């Protein structure tokens, strides 16, 4: 077994689906608190797959996590669980400290105790993979080189500060206790099952629902976009071949200004599902107040993971964004349940 945390969220669910698509893969124990961002509908394709075991719970639960480790004896942990939305972290940072820092601390401590109790051969193969973000490196100017693994940490938002803190804990557990960790710092993901609070799914769904497409500030902020399936393949490579104690930057070499991302989505929608009035979806673009402390540019230098682990993304931005728009058009039931909030009803029923 492997244990993943946060596996009902956007990246974690894609990871579980990709992992279990290979019939030879080990089983997955999936621990998720099912916050507003956790959605069991993402995992529906695994409903009849006995290799997938879903556990509703918190990475910070000091009784549950040791029990899961004892019961399932995972040979690896991949930690996706986090509060992940920058805007939410600005309004209400407390949950970010609770899950991203304290939760990761509790998970590390439980995992270290479990690892200490393993026999020598199990101890050797075990690893703890921490999934993190490029935002820990802060913001770049237009002419700065892309982030490398040796760049200083300069987090600017409550979200990125909490992720930076978790990265430091993971690093320290390796250096102090010899606990076998790897960390990946990835750029902006997009793809299926992305919760529509983030730019790309928000714009696709607002466009289709005749709502404004909100662009913060001047829309010239740059993000480096990676298709979620490529992030999942990078995690698999690092989990299998990554060197313990190392960090790997993961990115798609796809730097785009926000306004260009939004215009690209509008052009694709104009082709795939033209507006009934014949106008372009770009008419719905609306510039709104900027995000406080908005980082100007992120860019990932992914040469280390390419050189050392021979990982390469399969999708370009053009192919990945087209697939993504098509996925949202092809999955109206998922979209409806998320937009109406009905995906949470099952939760109430099951877990009251
Ligand atoms: P998400 O918000 O879609 O999903 C997070 C999942 O974690 C949800 O299912 C939620 O229920 C669960 N969760 C939250 N708190 C928990 C807790 N205390 N215990 C157990 N589960 C909990 O996030 P995502 O976009 O899938 O991101 C996954 C990870 O990847 C995060 O660590 C994030 O920092 C990192 N990351 C995300 C991106 C991106 O572009 N989305 C890029 C780089 C790194
Ligand atoms: O870089 C990796 C990070 O990417 C991850 O660690 C985070 O978990 C993930 O949420 C994402 O953070 P961003 O803040 O970059 O993503 P978001 O989709 O919220 O915003 C992308 C850009 O678009 C950013 O510059 C803000 C802008 N934006 C966002 C929203 C939601 C808008 O202009 N309008 C919007 O309505």
UniProtKB/TrEMBL annotation:
Keywords: Lyase, NAD
Superkingdom of the source species: Bacteria
Listed GO MF terms: dTDP-glucose 4,6-dehydratase activity
Every NAD(P)-binding domain range: 3-324
Its EC number(s): 4.2.1.46
Keyword Protein transport: no
Statement: the UniProt record of this protein carries the keyword NAD: yes
Record InterPro entries: dTDP_Gluc_deHydtase (IPR005888), NAD(P)-bd_dom (IPR016040), NAD(P)-bd_dom_sf (IPR036291)
Name of the protein in its database record: dTDP-glucose 4,6-dehydratase
Source organism: Polynucleobacter duraquae
């Amino acid at each position: 077994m492997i244990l993943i945390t946060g596996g009902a969220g956007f990246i974690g669910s894609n990871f579980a689906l990709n992992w279990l698509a290979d019939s030879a893969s080990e089983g997955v124990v999936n621990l998720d608190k099912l916050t507003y961002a956790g959605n069991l509908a993402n995992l529906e394709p695994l409903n009849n797959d006995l290799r997938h075991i879903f556990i509703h719970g918190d990475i910070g639960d000091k009784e549950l996590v040791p029990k899961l480790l004892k019961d399932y004896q995972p040979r690896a942990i991949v930690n996706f669980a986090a509060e992940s939305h920058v805007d939410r972290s600005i309004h209400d940072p407390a949950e970010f400290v609770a899950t991203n820092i304290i939760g990761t601390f509790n998970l590390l401590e439980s995992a270290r105790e479990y690892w200490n109790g393993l026999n020598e051969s199990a101890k050797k193969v075990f690893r703890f993979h921490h999934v993190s973000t490029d935002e820990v490196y802060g913001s770049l100017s237009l002419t700065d080189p892309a982030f490398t693994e040796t760049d200083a940490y300069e987090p600017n938002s409550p979200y990125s500060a909490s992720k930076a803190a978790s990265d430091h804990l993971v690093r320290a557990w390796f250096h102090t206790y010899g606990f076998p960790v790897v960390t990946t710092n990835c750029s902006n993901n997009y793809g299926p099952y992305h919760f529509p609070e983030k730019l790309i799914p928000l714009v696709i769904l607002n466009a289709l629902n005749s709502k404004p497409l909100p662009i913060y500030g001047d829309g010239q902020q740059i993000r480096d976009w990676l298709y979620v399936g490529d992030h999942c393949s990078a995690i698999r490579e690092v989990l299998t071949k990554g060197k313990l104690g190392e960090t790997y930057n993961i990115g798609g070499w796809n730097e785009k200004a926000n306004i260009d991302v939004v215009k690209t989505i509008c052009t694709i929608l104009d082709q795939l599902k033209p507006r009934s009035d014949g106008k372009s979806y770009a008419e719905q673009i609306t510039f709104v107040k900027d995000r406080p402390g908005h980082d100007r540019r992120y860019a990932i230098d992914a040469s280390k993971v390419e050189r050392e682990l021979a990982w390469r993304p399969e999708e370009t931005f053009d192919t990945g964004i087209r697939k993504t728009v098509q996925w949202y058009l092809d999955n109206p039931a998922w979209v409806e349940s998320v937009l109406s909030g009905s995906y949470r009803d099952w939760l109430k029923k099951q877990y009251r």
